[in-house]
Amino acid sequence: MASAHIAGVGMTEFGEFPERTGRDLFGEAGGTAIEDAGIDREEIDALYVGNFMGELSENQGHMGPLMAKAVGIDAPATRIESACASGGMAVRQAVKDVRNGEADVVLVGGVERMHNMGTTGATGGLSVAADDLWEIRQGITFPGAYALMAQRYFAVHGGDREDLAHVAVKNHANAANNPLAQYQTEISVEKVLDAPPVALPMGLFDSSPITDGAAATVLVSEAYAEEHGLETPVAITGTGQGTDNLALAERDSMVWTPATEDAGRRAYEDAGISKDDVDFLEVHDCFTIAEVLAIEGLGFYEEGEGITAAREGETAADGELPVNLSGGLKAKGHPVGATGVAQISEMTKLFRGDHVNSDAVEDAEVGLTHNAGGTVASAVVHVLEVAE
Amino acid sequence: MSDDEISNDGYDQALDAIENGEPYALECPEGHQSMPPRQVCPECGASDLEEVEIPLSGELLSYNVTYVPTPDFGDDVPFVLGVAEFDDVRLTGRVQADAEDVEVGSAVEVGLGESETTGRPLVTFDLA
């Protein structure tokens, strides 16, 4: 099937900017992507914007038209919401539009404003990605939900908090020189283990931070790129999505994520590749245990064996399969609706050679992004390849 | 439950049943069990669902110790939250015990309690 070529990418600095509105953040990221693509704004045929909780954080719904004007366009504009997978789902809609001929040029982005809600407010806002009746009313939080998954993983497969701490240490190391990352500091295993508890066994440094930020990407058809002489060194060649029971307790297993497995399998098939072709990954490490479940669900590790990957250095920048060279959600930051688009932006720069960690994947040809919503009730996977 | 709370058909009755010591799930002809409210079985789509008793006692599959709460649980922290299995359904609820006394595999009994912050009802698990 036709590929959606990546003509340009943009991202705000990720971090603590409680005074910045969603429209301000998105305007910056979208503008950067359009400039990076070197296209005229009038050429954009459609806009998709991922956002999770604008209604709760800044009393703002209906972000399609708002964000269109934030970047100065009047193309058909739609907001996509799938909790923390909103950004990746927006990318998926954009890829479909380009592939089916609906559009030649699509701007896709994501945005989230979170710090203005405070820690408890943001915890409450994020919790609405769970089941209201049987989870939220029982006091579940997202750190708490992933803590349930981690505790179950330890009981079923073994492993401990120290194994998981290595995931955080690795991702902080990857973000240390990333100028857009929220945490540009290396940390130690001891620091992770001694951090304040959030929902044990998840401590503060097992958790991705509360983040304000936006990201955007310009996708074009191959024909449009050729006709207009655009440089598009990277293309999205596969997309896949998976769905599971919303409530964690309704799943057959608390330590296996069928939505990730389905999204991965569909994306591999769509791109005509196998997992063995993949050189590096950006996965949804909202909590340290989430990275473990992702690399297992995507088929890179057998169930129960992914927990040692970071400790053994296999997923480090100089390992066999680098995971989250951007710093991941853990250290780059996790403005939830923007995350899935930020993964595309960062991976594109890693391929192009203009990312601080590009040297780690100099000869790479295939990369994979994995974005999850809730306790992986939603998952979306994209395959990115060096365009021929 | 406060008087001004909007009711939730199916859910409220299921909580009442838990409070009365007679918890139930919905079961389809294939034997798939799920918690209400349901129009169809989430596993197979069958629409003829029957209420079937589930045991009061179950097994704790996992738990956490929550320190950073949502606004509705600000006065409740820290608390232990768990997932427990009762026949073929699993529930999320408050484990009414100190964390050091809890382990994966603990036997628990389901009941009904309330949030210390809002007074709203919630599912509870007592160590058996």
What does this molecule look like?
The complex is a heterodimer of chains A (388) and B (128). The longest helix of chain A has 17 residues. Helix content of chain A is 37%, strand content 18%. With 388 residues, chain A is an alpha/beta fold. Chain A has a single domain, classed as Peroxisomal Thiolase, Chain A, domain 1, CATH 3.40.47. By secondary structure, chain B is mainly beta. Chain B has two domains: 53 residues, no CATH class; 74 residues, OB fold (Dihydrolipoamide Acetyltransferase, E2P). In chain B, 7% of the residues lie in helices and 39% in strands. Chain B has one helix and eight strands; from the N terminus they run αββββββββ. In chain B, the strands form two sheets. Chain B has a five-stranded mixed β-barrel. A three-stranded antiparallel beta sheet of chain B has the order 2-1-3. The model of chain B has no long low-confidence stretch (mean pLDDT 96). At the A-B interface, α5, α6 and β5 of A face β4, β5, β6 and β8 of B.
List the helices and strands and how they pair.
The complex is a heterodimer of chains A (388) and B (128).
Chain A lengths: L3 E8 L10 H16 L8 E5 L3 H5 L4 H8 L6 E4 L5 H14 L5 E8 L5 H10 L14 H16 L3 H15 L13 H6 L2 E4 L1 E2 L9 E9 H6 L6 E10 L14 H14 L8 E3 L5 H10 L30 H5 L3 H17 L13 E8 L4 E9 L2
Helix pairs in contact in A: 1-3, 4-13, 7-11
Chain B lengths: L10 H9 L4 E4 L5 E2 L15 E4 L3 E10 L12 E8 L2 E7 L11 E8 L6 E7 L1
Parallel strand pairs in B: 6-8
Antiparallel strand pairs in B: 1-2, 1-3, 4-5, 4-7, 5-6, 7-8
Keywords (chain A): Acyltransferase, Isoprene biosynthesis, Transferase
GO molecular function, one term (chain A): acetyl-CoA C-acetyltransferase activity
InterPro entries (chain A): Thiolase, Thiolase-like, Thiolase_C_2, Thiolase_N
